[in-house]
Write a structure and sequence with these properties.
The protein is of the alpha+beta class. It has 6 helices and 16 strands. A hairpin with a 6-residue loop joins strand 1 and strand 2 (39-41).
């Protein structure tokens, strides 16, 4: 019997995670991508190759969208598509952080059906399947129950604090940060933080897996305007991300629209 998409992603994440741990971020060979697209290291490339070796033969009819491969337009015609970030949080990895992650997902019909976010350095494996809940190393996850925005613990970039993003005034939340966007979403699913927002355009591979984790843990995830993200599109980007339990998500979106803090 063929293993499920989720079981396949878990197996691939653990194998590729072991490959990643062979490298030390500050000493790994690195270079900058063209057009100021950010840094990449030999670890990113090695992990991408390890994922391809496992996933592509197992699902030859699936499309392929990876940060470390040239985008192939034929993915758009595929019924299902892998959406992958071999190392999410590369800048943190280069600086010696241990909270970088592998982000793996399967998109179908614009939605995410299976997802894994894996932190090899901590052996933390977050997983989710549509309709099956979100899990961390076998323990079920649930998003925060906090109801007040003021004082909430929110994972956000410094750019998100710019007053120009909040026409009616920025809510008085406590800002926190982690270098991996996928991990930030996983932490919201875990309930360790109340919300996460990034207001710049986000690539599919950064948010696909974390989005399903949050949704299956009871959070709401939209773009910065309140729209539903769609995956395996052209281009594969979303207009920012706001993830929070329902009682916090609605007022955050309202504040971003200028309806007050």
């Amino acid at each position: 019997m063929q293993e499920s998409d989720l079981a396949l992603l878990v197996r691939a994440a653990r194998t590729a995670g072991a490959v990643a741990l062979r490298f030390h971020g500050p000493t790994a060979k690195r270079w900058d991508k063209p057009e100021n697209a950010g840094p990449v290291t030999e670890a990113d490339i090695a992990v991408n190759a390890a994922l391809a070796e496992i996933l592509r033969p197992a699902r030859p009819d699936y499309g392929w969208l990876s940060e470390e491969d040239e985008d192939a337009p034929e993915r758009l015609a595929a019924e299902r598509c892998f959406v992958l970030d071999p190392i999410d949080g590369t800048t943190g990895f280069i600086e010696g952080s241990s909270s970088w992650s592998l982000s793996l997902a399967v998109a179908a019909g614009g939605a995410i059906g299976a997802a894994v976010v894996y932190l090899p350095a901590h052996d933390l494996l977050y997983s989710a399947e549509a309709g099956g809940g979100a899990w961390l190393n076998g323990a079920r996850l649930s998003a925060s129950a906090r109801q007040e925005i003021d004082g909430a613990n929110v994972l956000a970039t410094r750019y998100a604090l710019d007053d120009r993003n909040w026409p009616g005034g920025r809510p008085d939340f406590e800002r926190h940060h982690r270098p991996s966007l996928a991990y930030r979403l996983a932490l919201v699913a875990e309930g360790r933080f109340d919300a996460m927002l990034t207001l710049r355009e986000s690539w599919d591979w950064d948010i696909a897996a974390g989005l399903l984790l949050c949704v299956e843990a009871g959070a709401v995830v939209t773009d910065r305007h309140g729209g539903t993200p769609r995956f395996n599109t052209d281009p594969p980007r979303t207009a920012g991300v706001v993830a929070a339990p329902p009682q916090l998500h609605a007022p955050l979106i309202e504040a971003l629209r200028g309806g007050g803090g």
